[in-house]
Design brief:
Distance between the termini of chain A: 24 Å
Mean pLDDT of chain A: 96
Structural class of chain A: alpha+beta
Number of strands of chain A: 6
Order of helices and strands of chain A: HHEEHEEEE
Low-confidence stretches of chain A: none
Oligomer: homotetramer
Radius of gyration of chain A: 15 Å
Helix content of chain A: 10-25%
Shape of chain A: globular
Largest interface: A-B, 35 and 35 residues
Chain lengths: 145, 145, 145, 145
């Protein structure tokens, strides 16, 4: 997958820095490649649900941003990306020291891009376990010339 | 839909108060009836994505909790509820003074419960506009006698 | 919801007649209104899965067509409609004399339209029971002038 | 993934032969391994929608069966499997000489199993192109001792 936007990495980093929710929850961008984006989120007790696990909505928040930016890396310069829809299966309790979501583009289209994100918990021994998976659709809104 | 747990409303309120993420984002429980739960979230700039709209993950966070608790209202006393999966369609930009998500049980089963949540933005004139809709599956883990 | 295409009902009927799969399974169009389409499918043993229930894929087949045509009723003349994605929750065994799926547009957009379909089984006493529900996204491909 | 049921392959083949819809559409089981099932469907004009592509519901029908049987391969002897829900993204027109859906278990649980299926069209040169992807949840109903 070849990027149409030569400064895709800088553009993703700039846009990510403009998402206040990412700084509220403490998420950081850890990888940006054509069609692939990873976001890391250290566990914090104030992000949990009633059993102390990361709330499924927080798992979704980082995965939705990762999917949007993965789609964005393959769009022309000046595009805006919005989420159309996503579906998340929660596979295991989101318990861990840290979480990483890895989004990969499955199909990039002129208007719609389909992306998958896998979310892993990382324990004290750096072992990764899949805790959730998202399948979603992103739309690119392109600037008119 | 008749509740099996006579203290469902108190149990939902107690569990909601034990979800630290709800207090981090400023969400509050506004309605708990058999099979129906509403959660209100006032807009805050630190919950936004890069265009200033409420992040789709935050829309999901309140809807997932509302769906889980709507399912819980129809479960036996002492049940725990977990999300199996959900799908969200984002319909309009989540711009507004306040948001409300209303979750309603579609089918309550012995193990699995299917729930739908509609998310509305509320503008300065108290007008409600649908911004997202979730269709999800919750699982009840029941205490053994 | 006001139709942009004054001959939407004839156009839906013509397109439906051009879907060979509908005649293979014995489905018929039973209602076409702006934003709403119903399709009826009598039970047949050769549409079943291993327990004799209507196969979930057949439930999906009629619902996907109903969703596509419901979206189409609100599109400009000469549009083509394609499915982007759909999600189906299976709620009860699809046992019955006849099935009806009712699709309703939730949000019609210029490009994307979100539709929901509820599928009911109809027993010998004409009672309707919800057996599945679909939430999907349709895309309109519009003719250039 | 180790099968709990030593005769899983025979059991899948027997159950598949009991799905009348598979013979109606001309689908055949082409691979059964622990956690993985493939189904092949030759194109037929009577399985198409109005543009001559395989109907999305037919794509779903073979994928849902493949997902159910992939889950079944990892269940104890005597289990029954039912679909809880699935979500399908349609990526490209389903045009081709033949189609194959490949389902793989992502997470096998005691009650619920999450499965993904990728659907490929195969053209005259045997080239495979991804046309759709399904993410779904299956439930195992186990015989009581």
């Amino acid at each position: 997958m070849n990027p149409l936007n030569p400064s895709f990495a800088e553009d993703v980093a700039r846009s990510f820095a403009q998402q206040p929710i990412m700084s509220l929850i403490g998420a950081r961008l850890s990888l940006v490649e054509p069609g692939v984006v990873e976001i890391i989120l250290p566990y914090r007790a104030d992000l949990a649900q009633q059993h102390g696990y990361l709330h499924a909505g927080v798992v979704t928040t980082i995965s939705d941003s990762a999917c949007g930016y993965a789609a964005f890396t393959l769009m022309p310069s000046g595009s805006n990306v919005l989420s159309v829809e996503f579906k998340v299966n929660l596979l295991r309790p989101a318990q861990g020291v840290e979480f990483v979501t890895r989004a990969e583009v499955i199909k990039a289209g002129r208007t719609l891009t389909v992306v998958r994100a896998d979310v892993f918990r990382i324990d004290g021994n750096k072992e990764r376990t899949l805790v959730a998976t998202m399948q979603g659709t992103m739309i690119g809104l392109h600037q008119k010339a």
